[in-house]
Every structure is written in structure tokens, then in C-alpha cells.
UniProtKB/TrEMBL annotation:
CDD domains: AdoMet_MTases. It comes from the Bacteria. Gene3D superfamilies: Vaccinia Virus protein VP39. SUPFAM superfamilies: S-adenosyl-L-methionine-dependent methyltransferases. Residues 51-149 form the Methyltransferase domain. PANTHER family: METHYLTRANSFERASE. The lineage of its organism: Bacteria, Bacillati, Chloroflexota, Ktedonobacteria, Ktedonobacterales. This is Methyltransferase domain-containing protein. InterPro entries: Methyltransf_25, SAM-dependent_MTases_sf.
Length: 286
């Protein structure tokens, strides 16, 4: 689906577009802030030494973890070699010696021995997983975690807004995810993953499952208005080829909605609220 020079990717966006790399870096900063940090404050980091970030993109989260927690050894993996080159170059230039990056396909068994990590992080992997492949990844993470290790999953729902055009654009994403069985929605009216994170962890055998929600106010005048609107304005042209190819909208209709959305989000009465969930569970000790 996506034009990568690597293994066949199910990611919704063509990451060979440089714009996607920069969008992900800015999105990383936005979400680190909205989430209140790199890890939920409730999480006890004392026993953590080794961290794996799956689908790390250009490395924003992994680089910040390595920078902030110098005693941790951090590894980021991504299917796309351009992302990994970018992340690696950042680490080298900033002389961060406790982080490394590798090209790996998370839909396949990962090239690490059993019990390699104390904590595994995934964020926005719903962008390439399907209803069928979520359990496989959680099982593989169980293999890679040390006993007592933590799997931390973060996913979001798109904003609820008072822009009919933006709601239609979101709707095209919901519909394509639903029709392609990429999510757990029963009606194609949501991204359809946050409500399932706890249950997926439980079904995969994780224990002490915890959840923490966060929300983002992107309304006109709100602190996050500019950065979220910038993310939206970049996201939709990048995801348009996937949506048009999925036959959920034709190009002319999409372009009209995108144009109207651009005007709506700059109206002084524009409101938008989105939310996300961080869910984490532990690998049983025995
Ligand atoms: C939405 S981005 C997530 C970025 C990052 N996790 C963050 O929070 O900023 C999804 C990433 O998953 C990568 N990806 C897609 N399919 C993958 C696969 N099968 N295995 C590993 N990474 C994959 C994409 O190349 C992209 O960089």
C-alpha cells in the first residue's frame, strides 16, 4: 500500500514523503505534551533498564527517552529505512550513546532474543495493524519482555469538532479502517481501538492492567490550536491517496472538504476536542 523501499508496509501514509517524517516529529512533541510526559506518572520506572519502541518513526519518543533517562538503553525499530536513517542521524549528531535504531517489520517475529526488554512502547501502531494482527504483536511483545516487564500502548480517537467538513474527513478514515477490518469498530464511526486496548492486553495474558486517558483541546484560541491544526493540514493530503484508493471518497469531494475545513478551523467559534488512552500491562512473573 505504501511506497517504501523496504518490506511491504500496511501503513496508511507513504513515508517516502519527507512531509510525513517532519509531521511525525512535530506530532511526537504535541502528544508528549498532551500525555503529560513520556510515561504515565503512575508507572514505576525504578526497575526499568532496557526499552524498545516499536514503529518508532523518525525516533522522536525514543530519542527523548534516551536523552531524559541516561541510564536506560533504548532501541527503536521501524519498517521504513528512511525513518531509521533519520533517527540514527539525530542520535549520532546529538551524541546519544544509549539509543540505537534498526529496520524491522513488526508484523514478523522480531530479531531479539526472548526476555530482552523491561519496557516496550507502541504509539499509533493502529496506523499499520489490523484487527487480526493486534494479538500477534502483543504476543510477540510478551516473548520479548522480561518477567514483570511492561507493555505500554497509546492510541487516540480523532477530535469531535463543530466543522462539518472536518467531521466528513474523519469519517472517510473511519470508513476505510472499518471496511478493511483494520479496527475494532462495529459501525465504522470511530478509529475504534482505544476501547479495546485493555481487553487486548488481558487476552494476551498481561496482568495489573492500568489505563490513563488524556485529551487535547484544539479549539480556536486554545494553546494547542495551531499545532494540532498544522498536524491535521499535513495529515489529510498525505492520507488522501489511501482514502481515494479505498473508494471511500472521490478526489474532488475530498478536495472540497479539505478546503472548507481549512476555513472552518480558523473561525473564532471553532471547537475541537480529541482524546487518547495509554494502557499498560505487565508480563506475569512466572
Ligand atoms: C504513526 S507512525 C508512529 C510514530 C511513533 N510511534 C510516534 O509515536 O511518534 C507509524 C510508524 O509505523 C511504521 N510502520 C508501519 N508498518 C510497520 C511495521 N510493519 N513494522 C514496524 N513499523 C511499521 C511507519 O513506518 C511509521 O513510522
Amino acid at each position: 500500500m505504501s511506497a517504501t523501499d523496504d518490506a511491504e508496509s500496511t501503513y496508511l501514509i507513504d513515508v517516502e514523503e519527507g512531509a510525513e517524517t517532519s509531521r511525525l516529529l512535530e506530532q511526537n512533541m504535541l502528544y508528549n505534551r498532551a500525555q503529560g510526559g513520556l510515561f504515565p506518572t503512575e508507572l514505576d520506572l525504578t526497575p526499568i533498564q532496557s526499552v524498545l519502541d516499536i514503529g518508532c518513526g523518525p525516533g522522536g519518543w525514543a530519542l527523548e527517552v534516551a536523552y531524559t533517562y541516561k541510564h536506560l538503553g533504548v532501541v527503536g525499530i521501524d519498517i521504513n529505512s528512511a525513518m531509521i536513517r533519520y533517527a540514527f542521524a539525530q542520535a549520532r549528531t546529538r551524541k546519544l550513546q544509549n539509543v540505537s535504531f534498526e529496520v524491522m517489520d513488526a508484523s514478523q517475529p522480531l530479531d531479539f532474543p526472548d526476555a530482552s526488554f523491561d519496557l516496550i512502547n507502541t504509539r499509533f501502531v493502529a496506523s499499520f495493524l489490523t484487527r487480526a494482527t493486534w494479538p500477534d504483536l502483543l504476543k510477540e511483545c510478551m516473548r520479548l519482555l522480561k518477567p514483570g516487564g511492561i507493555l505500554q500502548l497509546t492510541e487516540v480517537e480523532l477530535g469531535i469538532t463543530n466543522s462539518a467538513a472536518l467531521e466528513r474527513l474523519s469519517g472517510y478514515i473511519y470508513q476505510s479502517l472499518y471496511e478493511q477490518k483494520r479496527n475494532f469498530s462495529v459501525n465504522g464511526r470511530s478509529i475504534g481501538i482505544v476501547h479495546m486496548l485493555g481487553q487486548l492486553l488481558k487476552q494476551a495474558g498481561y496482568t495489573n492492567i492500568c489505563r490513563k486517558s488524556f485529551f487535547m483541546d484544539s479549539s480556536f484560541g486554545a494553546e494547542l490550536h495551531y499545532s494540532t491544526i498544522k498536524d491535521i493540514e499535513l495529515l489529510y493530503p498525505l492520507i488522501k491517496p489511501y482514502l481515494v484508493k479505498s473508494n471511500v471518497v472521490d478526489e474532488a469531494v475530498f478536495d472540497e472538504d479539505y478546503k472548507t475545513m481549512g476555513t472552518d478551523v480558523m473561525r473564532h467559534d471553532f471547537v475541537a476536542l480529541s482524546f487518547g488512552l495509554i494502557a499498560w500491562g505487565h508480563k506475569p512473573l512466572s
